[in-house]
Amino acid sequence: MIDTLKIWLHAGRQYIPDVTSVNLPDTFTNGRPIISDTISGDEAKLVAALCPTAAINPNPFSIDLGKCVFCNECSRALGNDKIRFTNDYKTATNVREKLIIRSGQIEPIKLDANTVRKEINQYFGNSLKLRQISAGGDNSAEWELNATNNVNFDMGRWGIEFVASPRHADGVVITGPITENMAKALQMCYDAVPNPKIIILVGTDAISGGIFEGSKALNRAFLNKYAIDLFVPGNPPHPLTFINGVLELIRKRS
Ligand code: SF4
Q1: Does residue 69 have its Cβ closer than 6 Å to ligand 1?
Q2: pTM, whole model, 2 decimals?
Q3: pLDDT (0 to 100) of residue 254
């Protein structure tokens, strides 16, 4: 007993009491970018050509976080005063267009409450079981999803958990660019989840294909058939990005 108390005192409180108000250090540079409106045409063309995933539209200048792999090359090329990736990790949204950040935009990325399906907060407000499907993923987003259940983030305290069987799930969380070899398995898994069910795309690869976009090895037809309930950008996303996005999605609304 004494030993247990000693360990407890030594370790201190490990869980994050309020995951919605965490300030990540400035060394985290995979958050929402702030883009100056003074980027010249030549500078825009330069960074659009550097970008490995065509996430930059030079005119009018914007960065698509659904395509961005957060390599920070554009920021290094033009300097932090022109493009700065901030530590704002609350970048998940249910509207794909909101992932496109334009010059001069300083507003945070939000969910559109009006387009959240009614069943979601009606049925999943207090409990949400999710089946994770790695559809050709590289294990990075998957590791971060694993971390959501560790002692720091403790996502289970809101009743949000990953389950082994799609029969026990309320929705699917897809990572990876969806390879041909995983397309059928993804469909079978989704079909096995009872209605109503939700779809969450986690990471750049899942949202746009990332660096694999356009590859013949992909089969992303699944995404054309269903509405996506939540986009969680990042390469990989931070656990707090996922948790805050899901909490906002299932939040009870009057
Ligand atoms: S940080 Fe994003 S937008 Fe900038 S070059 Fe890398 S992938 Fe492109």
Answers
A1: yes
A2: 0.94
A3: 57
